[in-house]
Amino acid sequence: MASNSMTPRFVSRLTRDTLALILAGGRGSRLKELTRWRAKPSVHFGGKFRIVDFPLSNCVNSGIRSIGVLTQYKAHSLIKHIQQGWSFLRGEFGEFVEMLPAQQRISETAWYSGTADAIFQNLDILRSHEPSYVLVLAGDHVYKMDYGPMIALHVESGADMTVGCLEVDLEQAKEFGVMSVDANNKVIEFSEKPDSPAPIPGRDDVALASMGIYVFNSGFLYEQLIQDANKNDSSHDFGKDVIPSVIEQHKVMAYPFRDPQTGQQAYWRDVGTVDAFWKANLELIGVTPELNLYDSQWPIWTYQEQLPPAKFVFDDDGRRGMAVDSMVSGGCIISGATVRHSLLFSHVTVNDFAEVYDSVVLPDVVIGERCRIRKAVLDKGCSVPPGMVIGEDPEEDAKRFYVSEKGVVLVTPDMLGQDRHHVQ
């Protein structure tokens, strides 16, 4: 790359000319009842955030302030969250977060049928913004990433398309779209969930897996979307259709996503299963977690209701309000109860003599007196009756709740017989 290619002025010019599109219409069915009433990008994460806050914050922190969010599946809570938390951008300066729901712009029956089709159906809106580059992002992954260097590499290399990639071990790579690259990271082949992933040059233990992050020259993207839309045998998906079709004729580059400080694989989580969701949340309460939510240089923005501080009351033997090795959000009251190695979202009440261990408790949950909760995820709005035991007897839990492969118990208001389908 040219010596001046990564100067702040160079990168900031490129990010100003970039339109980001966040694909946030995913159903997220592997999260089971957590996505029964909300899209996966709208699922709560990290004590006060929603998953979609991570790509949105990455954009703003990277200097990309022209952002479209494409929604489809049960999008009300997602739209409400973005309206409440992301309305601070100033339209008169060309800054915006636009909602782009599936709205039958092409035909009266056309919902988004794939990732490429979702953007194709909004092609007139994209053109009206006149971006030089289009950054396509998945709305359902948790990570911190400066997109500026990736866009700079895309421009400097003369690529038509650049794909953000993770370095993953060969066994894990079987679950991803895998890029085969040459010594300069030019993509020469793409395989969707291959049985034998191709390792990267010079290594025999890792492969390059697509993150679902793409940078396009805008004109090139429009051409490819139109061509794909005219193919009757296409599923209209970037990974399955668009990338394989452009590799031979056009220049596609891979961009390995690494930690800028260490050069090692950077933090990135797909929290698409109950086990992964539980694990990623509880990772945050470690002494030095990989994902630093306290990083003032790269803040994660969100909307949060104005709430009083967390409160811990009673200090009697056997009835002591306490939380150890835990994160507790605003508005919580720990009343004579014990919370250990757990993450509590906003406005959670834990009543006398209750015990909560190794659990993720979403907002507005009330845990009754003398409850014992172990290795659980309690969905928003749950009211756990006094004395209920969760997470100690897998057979009993399975009769009432969802129990994951690794023994995490997911509890929702519906499972408790509480008609709270409006809770999002």
TrEMBL record:
SUPFAM superfamilies: Nucleotide-diphospho-sugar transferases, Trimeric LpxA-like enzymes. Residues 20-284 form the Nucleotidyl transferase domain. It catalyses: alpha-D-glucose 1-phosphate + ATP + H(+) = ADP-alpha-D-glucose + diphosphate. Keywords: ATP-binding, Carbohydrate metabolism, Glycogen biosynthesis, Glycogen metabolism, Nucleotide-binding, Nucleotidyltransferase, Transferase. Pathway: Glycan biosynthesis; glycogen biosynthesis. One of its GO terms (molecular function) is glucose-1-phosphate adenylyltransferase activity. GO terms for biological process: glycogen biosynthetic process. Gene3D superfamilies: Hexapeptide repeat proteins, Spore Coat Polysaccharide Biosynthesis Protein SpsA, Chain A. Its EC number is 2.7.7.27. Residues 308-411 form the Glucose-1-phosphate adenylyltransferase/Bifunctional protein GlmU-like C-terminal hexapeptide domain. It is an enzyme of class 2 (transferase). InterPro entries: ADP-Glc_PPase, ADP_Glu_pyroP_CS, GlgC_bac, GlmU/GlgC-like_hexapep, NTP_transferase_dom, Nucleotide-diphossugar_trans, Trimer_LpxA-like_sf. Transmembrane segments: none annotated. Alpha-D-glucose 1-phosphate binds at Y112, G177, E192, K193, S210. The record marks Q72, W111 as: Could play a key role in the communication between the regulatory and the substrate sites. Belongs to the bacterial/plant glucose-1-phosphate adenylyltransferase family. Involved in the biosynthesis of ADP-glucose, a building block required for the elongation reactions to produce glycogen. Catalyzes the reaction between ATP and alpha-D-glucose 1-phosphate (G1P) to produce pyrophosphate and ADP-Glc. Homotetramer. This is Glucose-1-phosphate adenylyltransferase. It comes from Solemya pervernicosa gill symbiont.
